[in-house]
């Protein structure tokens, strides 16, 4: 997407609906000298990527600088192919403003620990957080020119989905807005020259994004900001295992895409492989989607369906899936299970996935079979994380599925 022109004096009109006129010299002097209480306390620091634009503009004003400097800083952080990580990269900002930022602001929330290269070109980035925790982010190039960054929203995950390696970890920590946004910034810094534009973001890394909804909503809004990272809202997809109250809020507050990890067609199976279903069952989940999406024009939800051999891949499952999603504008992604040491499941054979897909297509559904990417470096769907010595317990396998495992 072409970069929009830098609006030196127009930032306020973009967000507040009011025109912005250059202040008089007297007013300009007043803006440069706010009350002492508005300034940063000595030694205090803010994380710039934790703020959306209105917050950044207010903070810049509070430090005695004009709003135009806030927009220039915003473009250094997210636009103009700069993606600044150090003060030397803040080109165009005046000396006093840069000095204030050096004293009171941090530009970088993450540190690259390692980058793993998969045989298919997928890259897995290991990031260290300030407390020593590690998260994983995946960059997936595609021959069609689309390159996707898969970001994490937490260290670990509380949902304990039985087929997911991250779920073995339990929840260790929610990521901040800055730690989420920085993953997309790093992807562009590291790989834009090699892969071309990073066009898509999926919140399908470590964690349940809607369990960290405040920071995910804020991070996704920064990603789609037209003066910043400029991702199209329809190319930023937030995934969920089915937290119903948070789904309602997301659909009401965000224009980004929603992906629901469905993975079963009966409550019996979903209660087992996705324990969140015991609180928000299929009827409640799908009924909520049916009602909320009705209010959003031309909106379609993605249903993610991980194919588990002998568990959820029968012809009857396919027919039930058709009935379950009837009346919900949607697309369905069928995903081959990616084996890992934390699970006993087996992937559905390719020919059975095709049979399953054809049943859905015959009923008019839009269906994609998603190929595994990066599995030789544990970078594929459901393979991220490092459980360590402590792991959440596996749940009891229903008797009728014990043979399949």
Automatic annotation (TrEMBL):
Repressor found in the keyword field: no
Domain Radical SAM core intervals: 143-370
Gene Ontology CC terms: cytoplasm
Localization (cell): Cytoplasm
Cofactor field: [4Fe-4S] cluster
GO molecular function: 4 iron, 4 sulfur cluster binding; metal ion binding; RNA methyltransferase activity
Record keywords, A-Z: 4Fe-4S, Cytoplasm, Iron, Iron-sulfur, Metal-binding, Methyltransferase, rRNA processing, S-adenosyl-L-methionine, Transferase
Residues annotated as signal peptide: none
Protein name per its UniProtKB record: Radical SAM core domain-containing protein
Keyword hit for Cytoplasm: yes
GO biological process, one term: rRNA base methylation
Superkingdom assignment: Eukaryota
Main location, first listed in the record: cytoplasm
């Amino acid at each position: 997407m072409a970069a929009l022109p830098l609006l030196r004096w127009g930032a306020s009109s973009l967000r507040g609906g009011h025109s912005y006129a250059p202040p008089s010299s007297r007013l300009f002097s007043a803006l440069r000298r706010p009350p002492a209480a508005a300034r940063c306390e000595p030694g205090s620091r803010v994380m710039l990527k934790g703020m959306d634009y209105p917050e950044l503009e207010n903070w810049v004003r509070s430090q005695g600088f004009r709003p135009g400097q806030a927009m220039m800083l915003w473009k250094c952080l997210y636009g103009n192919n700069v993606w600044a990580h150090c003060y030397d990269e803040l080109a165009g900002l005046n000396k006093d403003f840069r000095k204030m930022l050096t004293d009171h602001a941090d530009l970088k929330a993450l540190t690259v620990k390692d980058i793993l290269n998969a045989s298919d070109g997928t890259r897995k980035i290991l990031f260290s957080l300030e407390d020593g925790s590690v998260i994983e982010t995946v960059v997936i190039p595609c021959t069609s020119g689309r390159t996707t960054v898969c970001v994490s929203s937490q260290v670990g995950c509380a949902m304990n989905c039985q087929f997911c390696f991250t779920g073995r970890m339990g929840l260790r920590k929610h990521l901040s807005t800055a730690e989420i946004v920085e993953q997309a910034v790093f992807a562009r810094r590291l790989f834009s020259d090699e892969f071309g534009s990073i066009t898509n973001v999926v919140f399908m890394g470590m964690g349940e994004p809607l369990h960290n909804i405040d920071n995910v909503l804020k991070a996704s809004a920064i990603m789609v900001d037209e003066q910043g990272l400029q991702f199209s809202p329809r190319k930023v997809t937030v995934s969920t295992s089915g937290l119903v109250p948070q789904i309602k809020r997301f659909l009401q507050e965000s224009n980004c895409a929603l992906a629901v990890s469905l993975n079963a067609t009966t409550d019996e199976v979903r209660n087992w492989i996705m324990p969140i279903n015991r609180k928000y069952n299929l009827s409640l989940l799908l009924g909520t989607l049916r009602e909320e999406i009705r209010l959003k024009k031309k909106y379609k939800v993605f249903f993610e369906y991980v194919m588990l051999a002998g568990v959820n891949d029968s012809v009857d499952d396919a027919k039930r899936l058709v009935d379950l999603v009837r009346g919900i504008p949607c697309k369905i992604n069928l995903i081959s299970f990616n084996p890992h040491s934390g699970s006993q499941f087996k992937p559905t054979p390719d020919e059975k996935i095709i049979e399953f897909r054809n049943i859905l297509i015959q009923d008019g559904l839009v269906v994609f079979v998603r190929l595994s990417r990066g599995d030789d470096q544990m970078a594929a769907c459901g393979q991220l994380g490092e459980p360590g010595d402590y792991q959440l317990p596996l749940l009891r396998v229903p008797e009728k599925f014990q043979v399949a495992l």
